[in-house]
């Protein structure tokens, strides 16, 4: 493998499947398509992305909303292919957009077939000082509390976005009470937060960041070593956060076996075991086997 800048546009190689397959617990299929198709979300391109994932032994993917348009698209995609499930909500940086009408639309989407979670919601103190359009923390906190309540009322899992906001996230969860099924997507804490998650029975979803070798990832990798297997999920967060040694390259759901293998080595366990357990955890957390079959075909469907 080369190491020049030209490699950054080269997708990672297709990995060999692991055992009976793995689940990508958090991805953004609409953003993957937009990267490939210059901003478009064509059903034919979606089918290609899903087929690549299938070739790598990825049996299911939870595509997660970023904004209201993304939430509508995620619900459409989940009802178009049996490999896709959806999480709907507003990203915390977009909390300014959580109007009464947006709340109504998100709540309606939670009742759609194959919508299996609320999110991603939470708090993000990284972008507050880097983007002028990022919602301030007090607005994020109120929006997070609303998503928590929605997850409780609908009986759906809550998918949490936590960036540079561990204490604030825990404060809101303590004040509001966490839903019965809570998932820390792209888990970014250290051993202390991992132990809190384990004590509470919250899932920790590990992405490519847990495979990074830089010094700032050391505490995260320690946490990934210690997490109880029954609460570990694995995700791509594609098209972002491509795992080591392909960091910076385009990411897609097919890449998740690379992450599983790296984490299995870190945890000193067979990749087949981690792949199986994390897939079973995702099946249980999101109740994937209980979902109805899609009502439309991605090949003939139309994007929303």
TrEMBL record:
PROSITE patterns cross-referenced by the UniProt entry: TATD_1 (PS01137), TATD_2 (PS01090)
Protein's UniProt keywords contain Hydrolase: yes
Gene3D superfamilies: Metal-dependent hydrolases
Residues reported to bind a divalent metal cation 2: 161, 185
Alphabetically ordered keywords of this record: Hydrolase, Metal-binding
Domain of life: Bacteria
GO cellular component, one term: cytosol
Keyword Acyltransferase: no
SUPFAM superfamilies, alphabetized: Metallo-dependent hydrolases
List of residues binding a divalent metal cation 1: 26, 28, 120, 237
Gene Ontology MF terms: DNA nuclease activity; hydrolase activity, acting on ester bonds; metal ion binding
Protein name (record): Uncharacterized metal-dependent hydrolase YcfH
Organism: uncultured Actinomycetospora sp
Taxonomic lineage: Bacteria, Bacillati, Actinomycetota, Actinomycetes, Pseudonocardiales
């Amino acid at each position: 493998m080369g190491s020049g800048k030209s490699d950054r546009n080269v997708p990672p190689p297709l990995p060999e499947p692991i055992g009976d397959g793995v689940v990508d617990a958090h991805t953004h299929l609409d953003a993957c398509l937009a990267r490939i198709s210059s901003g478009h979300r064509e059903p034919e391109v979606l089918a290609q992305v899903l087929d690549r994932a299938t070739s790598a032994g990825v049996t299911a993917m939870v595509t997660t909303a970023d904004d209201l348009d993304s939430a509508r698209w995620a619900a459409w995609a989940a009802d178009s292919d049996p490999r896709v499930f959806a999480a709907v909500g507003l990203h915390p940086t977009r909390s300014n957009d959580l109007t009464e009408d947006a709340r109504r639309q998100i709540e309606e989407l939670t009742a759609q077939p194959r919508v299996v979670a609320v999110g991603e919601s939470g708090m993000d103190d990284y972008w507050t000082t880097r983007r002028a359009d990022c919602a301030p923390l007090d607005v994020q906190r109120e929006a997070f509390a609303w998503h928590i309540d929605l997850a409780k009322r609908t009986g759906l899992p809550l998918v949490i976005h936590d960036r540079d906001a561990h204490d604030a996230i825990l404060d809101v969860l303590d004040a509001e009470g966490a839903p019965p099924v809570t998932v820390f997507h792209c888990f970014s804490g250290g051993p202390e937060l991992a132990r809190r998650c384990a004590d509470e029975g919250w899932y920790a979803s590990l992405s490519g960041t847990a495979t990074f070798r830089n010094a700032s990832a050391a505490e995260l990798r320690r946490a990934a070593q210690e997490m109880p297997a029954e609460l570990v999920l694995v995700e791509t967060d594609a098209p972002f956060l491509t795992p080591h040694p392909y960091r910076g390259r385009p990411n897609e759901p097919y890449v998740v076996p690379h992450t599983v293998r790296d984490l299995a080595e870190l945890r000193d366990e067979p990749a087949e075991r981690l792949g199986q357990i994390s897939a079973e955890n995702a099946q249980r957390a999101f109740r994937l086997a209980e979902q109805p079959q899609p009502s439309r075909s991605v090949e003939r469907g139309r994007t929303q």
